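Q: Could you fold this chain for me?
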Amino acid sequence: MSSRADWRAHLAPSMPAELAEEIDVFEAQMELRQQGRIDERVFAETRLRRGAYGQRYDNGLRHDGDGQKQLRYPGDNLTKGPDTLWDAPGMLRIKLPYGGMTPEQFEVIAQCAEEHSDGILHITTRQDVQLHYVHIEDAVTVMRRIGAVGITTREACGNGVRNITGCPVAGVCSTEAFDVTPYADAMFRFLLGHPDCQDFGRKFKIAFSGCPGEACGLVMLHDFGAIAEVRDGVRGFSLWVGGGLGPTPRQAKRMYDWVPAAELLPLAQAVGRVFARLGEKKNRNRARVKFLMEKLGVEEFRRLVDEERAILPHDDRWTSYLPAAEVWKDNPTKAPAPLRDDAELPAGYAEWARTNVQAQRQEGYSVATIALPLGDITSEQSRRLVDVARRYVGDNIRTTVEQNVVLRYVPDADLPALYRDLDEVGLAAPGAGTILDVTSCPGTDTCKLGIASSRGLANELRRRLAAASYIGDASIEGLRIKVSGCFNSCGQHHVADIGFFGNNRKVGGFSVPHFQVVLGGRWRENAGSYGMAVGAIPSKRIPEVVETITTTFASERAEDETFQDWIARLGKKEIGVLLEGLKSIPGYDEDRSFYVDWADAREYSVRDIAQGECAGEVISRTELMLTEAEGTAFDAQVALEDGDLLRADELSYRALLQAARALVRSEDSDIPDDPDTIVREFRERFYDTERFFDRFSGGKFARPLFVRHADGPPEQPDAEDIRTLADETALFIDAVHQYEIRQAGATGATV
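A: Sure. Below is the predicted structure, expressed as structure tokens.
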């Protein structure tokens, strides 16, 4: 029995059929790439769209929670050498819409991390989970295992709709208009793999927020965002488009003041179609929605979206979820109960409760935040946390954009016992949501684009701040620090009170790691404003920057003056004077510590920086669809070898349709996806016109498509007939490729 057949038999009953088929196809594409039958450029985008990402790999070093760099590969549980498909393991990103995760899902991810990774689950600033050091041949196994519990890696990377983020306290927050969870969930399911979202020039990020004033949703920094609002008793959203961080940050613009919930999904689809049609494809640096919005203006962009919305074919999914969304509610494991005044409180509990516990709007319940330094949690800690969650909150687990985990619906009476249990696992650190809770991207540990060690700096700041006496000042404690390893802002430094992003300077012929300082970003109000860059400082002096800025603010601010107002009052010139003394760098022979990065023994260099894979290359939809057809055809051959004749027939027919669809949709992306229409359109556009014919074979390679479509599946499958069909399917796909090459030659384009 093949691995595919084995997995289908054991996991398919608990996995959506479409997801199971997609994983099969990806495995087939991977095998075709090993055989050299798929171009690496196309395969790279294919694997990115399934969450498999190449990572930086200079000596296999990665910071641990104590600020040290550990050799993770080869390691105790990394048994495969570097002579595999990738020269070194990569990263696999798992999508968790709005950060929601059940104990069973958490447990399976932990098992996968232990068996196929380095035993670390990394929570990202988009509420995903990343597993690093995963060999690509193991990625398919992980995809199937997590797919069996209802989660996916599809479109976690690449030029598509990324994970949809949302308030981790949605449904329990006292300031929200209504619980956005079911709407975010519906958006995720609707857009996952949607044909109108497969031809983007870059990634597309979506966020939901239950109110305008808090930070949980961060709508203003997203390509598309929705803020909940009720009008005249009707649930709806204000819709925002064109936000983004990176080297040229832009805040989202309000596109619709308010729309009813029934219009949420069709308008998102219409925005996707406009972006796919008009967004930049050649220059990836200008291929985000924010640049299209800037070029057109919000009024013209809205007009185009309205036009697109008016011609969309009706889809029942736009509104079929609404009745359930209206009555959506969480399912607490335990009844609410107040904390008794005479309850025995363990040592350390009071400080943890002050910073990590938030009262819910449901009386008798609280949200408890588990602060994860650097966003990391081990497999062992995860398994034990799953046991804790089952004991107190059941399914009410979510990740946050600040790289933490929250447990919702903790009965107040259980908070001391919860603290004891978390403390036993090493997960009871206080300081969540304070200046101690430093956010960081992976930086030079694993990211190919990393310039400076964001994780190393973040850990050093946490260590020093925890010991600093001035942190007791309330005006300082609530500040946010966020660190990115480069200008791309994966650490979201633009919206931090105090933000840093890595860069490099040359001093006396030597490279010196630096961080650009960004001050005064507004975290609240859904990332209400971006900070001001005030200059680059040597990495080893950044802790002094934090101390200087915070202590000066605490001593000199006016009464009730916010940090943002204080920064604006000082202005760039005065802040420059304040930090001027920290820009100096001793000579190489005087102090070599400035010429190495945090917790690294090597002399600093930017030689390891490589082309990043954040977006991949822009691959035409036709190429991607043909790659999918090749994967399906490969699976048909495997089914044939397994003796599963009916499945081989079905997959061959599906591959024929996929290849035909690739050509049809290259001319009209609105053609319906049903087989009758695809075959008719292919015949009328390419066969009857003889456009598909070449001088050697005429149009004979198209005939198996017409015959199999007309005849349907065989009642008594014959092995020889189905083998012939499988062989003819491969020939048809190749003929479509050749047609594309001829067309490119005629137009001077490239394929």
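A (continued): The chain has five domains: 3-147, 173-326, 349-425, 439-595, 621-747.
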